[in-house]
Amino acid sequence: MRKIDLYDTTLRDGAQSEDVSFSVEDKLRIMWKLDDLGIHYIEGGWPGSNPRDAEFFNKAKKFKFKNAQLAAFGSTYHASNKVNNDPNIKALLAAKTPVITIVGKTWDFHVKEALRVSQQTNLELIYNSIEYLKKRVSKVFFDAEHFFDGYKANPEYALKALEAAVTGGADCLVLCDSNGGTLPPDIAKIVKTVSEKFKFPLGIHAHNDSECAVANSIVAIENGVMQVQGTINGLGERCGNANLISVIPNLKLKLKFDCISDTDLKKLKDVSRFVTEIANMRHFKRQPYVGDSAFAHKGGIHVSAIQRHPQTYEHIRPDTVGNYQRVLVSDLGGRSNIIRKIKDFKLKVDPDSPKVTQVVRELKELENQGFQFEGAEASFELLIKKTFGLHRKFFDLMGFRLIVEKREEGGDPVSEATIMVKVGKTLEHTAATGHGPVNALDNALRKALEKFYPQLKHVKLLDYKVRVLTAGVGTSAKVRVLIESGDETHKWGTVGVSENIIEASYQALVDSIEYKLLRG
After folding, report:
1. 92 in a structural domain
2. Lowest CB count within 10 Å: 151, 266, 292, 451, which one?
3. CA distance 483 to 511
């Protein structure tokens, strides 16, 4: 069984999607999720391009990977510089990653119009960059930008660019369909030619502008490629990148390639929805393998047939990718997912208890109201604990009030929260200011509780997201608030839903505090 390396570029290429903006904390959470999934290489970003990526790599140094190696991405050095003095090359090395992916031009058209250097100079840029980096890091991958377009226009020069990378010491030649316009037959033919010529590790990096990124990745692998690059849910610039959520099960289940374990494959739906939540996007119901509709059956002969044998209308068993079968007329399914989460949370409860069914019912009702628990697993764990009687109420809210005051034109508004809580028989009434009403409410709530629960002093609100759930009703729309909190050792996500953004925020804040207190 041939092994295929999975290279994820969600944190760079995926972050270039329209309407997607990952914070540093977002990227760190996604990185952890990708490592847990069993991805082999995680591209963290371009450390020389912006302060956010530089901060990410600085924080990522402390992370202990179980499966993945972190990669930094950058371009060949600028022709006006020496390789050892080039700021981009210096930033790549400063990231201190075991892997560096360097992108270089292989299309003579780009060499002339974009770089505006001679073809020979471009070959030197490729060779010198890789040769310099390879002496200083464990692995260097060469992203052959626009390779397929370049090969079709001038195959001799495109191959010379690959030769420069090989001579420089590259560990893998990643053939890029950067414009996403190449069709599978051409991908297959060109990859086969390159594979026969070089007898060298090859990769594929496909964009989806012709809706062929997944197919192009598959045919490239069938013709000798050993590394596939892509993003979770196909995020990426323009029409996106090859969707690893589809690529992985195609390789594992259909073609029997060795890429991730059976156990990790079952995490696929969870990872897909997690990234969707962090990206603050809507879940695509009809997404192959992991969408809510992927194994949904609605009435008639389909339901009758799948109840006799699922294979009549299902191409794989849903549970192999963490999904489940749904019969829409009765909405069966979900119980196995709850049982799995109980095990994940290490809760000492009976998985055969009828209360599991109660959790399923409550979950469906909450989801109907707009709650989503991907990215908010702390709230989900609290839901299970409440149902099984494992929850403890630490305080009662007696009331709160928020004041937002703008004192002068051009000045920043001032936010103040006043809150009253009851802990046991003690009433605590306090106030606090903040950068916005939610921050003020968070500060006031924790100020009121810290004298009773000093461990809350270590809790920080790390991220805050709002999504409008009901379109077309203007400012009266229902919203979902997703909050990430953390202390010195742990991070957790909580969720709230309401037509009132403050109420939704309060729900998520209370869940965050209760989760921390239950953990101790």
Report:
1. yes
2. 451
3. 10
Predicted confidence (pLDDT) per residue in 199-238, tens digit:
999 999 999 999 999 999 999 999 999 999 999 999 999 9
Beta-sheet pairing, 172-177 with 139-145: parallel
How far are the Cα atoms of 121, 175, 228, 230, 462 from residue 255, in angstroms, in the given order?
A: 42, 21, 14, 18, 42
* Number of structural domains found in the chain: 3
Domain that holds residue 506: 355-394+459-520
Contact between 24 and 59 under an 8 Å Cβ cutoff? The reply is: yes
Asked if 204 and 216 count as a contact pair (C-beta separation under 8 A), the reply is yes
Strand 460-468's sheet: what is its strand order?
A: 460-468, 479-486, 491-498
Query: Taking the alpha carbons of 356, 359, 365, 366 in that order, is the dihedral positive or negative?
Result: negative
Residue that is written with structure tokens 């208890």 in the block: 353
Q: What pLDDT, in 10s, does the model give residues 114-125?
A: 899 999 999 999
Q: Which of 282-291, 318-327, 336-345 has the lowest mean pLDDT?
A: 336-345
Q: At 484, which amino acid appears?
A: E
Instruction: Give the SS3 label for residue 258.
Output: strand
Does any domain span residue 195? yes
70-111 pLDDT per residue, tens:
999 999 999 999 999 999 999 999 999 999 999 999 999 999
CA 3 to chain centre: 24
Residues 76 and 202 in one domain: yes
Decide: helix, strand or coil at residue 99: strand
Report the C-alpha gap between 440 and 418 in whole angstroms.
9
User: How many distinct helices (H) and strands (E) make up the chain?
Assistant: 18, 16
DSSP at 475: G
Same-domain check for residues 411 and 503: no
- The number of C-alpha atoms within 13 Å of 512 and in the hemisphere containing its C-beta is 32
Q: Look at 223 and 324; give whichever has higher pLDDT.
A: 223
Both 249 and 360 in a single domain?
Answer: no
Which residue among 238, 260, 282 closes a domain? 260
Report which of 30, 9, 7, 8 is spatially closest to residue 279, judged by C-alpha positions.
30
List pLDDT tens digits, range 173-204: 999 999 999 999 999 999 999 999 999 999 99
Pairing of strands 479-486, 460-468: antiparallel
Q: What is the pLDDT of residues 437-462, one digit of tens each?
A: 999 999 999 999 999 999 999 999 88
10/281 Cα distance (integer angstroms): 14
Q: Is the same domain home to 448 and 488?
A: no
- The answer as to whether 226 is a domain residue is yes
Q: Note whether 44 and 145 are same-domain residues.
A: yes
Per-residue exposure over 6-24, b if at least 16 CB sit within 10 Å of its own CB, e if not: bbbbbbbbbbebeebebbb
